[in-house]
Sequence to fold (162 residues):
Amino acid sequence: MELPKPPFYRRWSVLLAGVIGLAAITALLGWRGLQELGPPPTTTTTAPTTVAAPTTTVPPTSFGPTSKPADVLWSEEGSDVRRSPGFRAPSAWRIEWEYDCSNFRDLGVAGFKITGGEAFVRVDIQANNLKGSGRKAFTQSGYGHLLVESVCQRWKVTVLSG
Fold:
């Protein structure tokens, strides 16, 4: 006497195929999620150029800056809460800010705050004066967001590399 065959959903081969299929879908979704974390890398191609050497040399008459200017990673002006889009910061970057909370002169105190998320969790800048400005340097690279929270009538935040 032979036992009846179990229904198809109880056979080990169907279960194994289902588990493998779910694992593949999970891996694919996870990979897509990781790809969306940062902006796609940009590639540049330069063509070789030939430069003729000058026959005479002239000493420079003035000396200019030798370092390249800082790149603006994010800049925003506002009067309420704003969240930056995600951006990638190099190993040396800084935040510069200024705010004007004169609209709270009667209270004598106001609130201005910048915090970070993802790789920028160590960003925590808070001020309670009616007006102010400042800058703070950071040395940890990564990809993240900043959140500016303020009740001031005007604020400006700029994130620069270098």
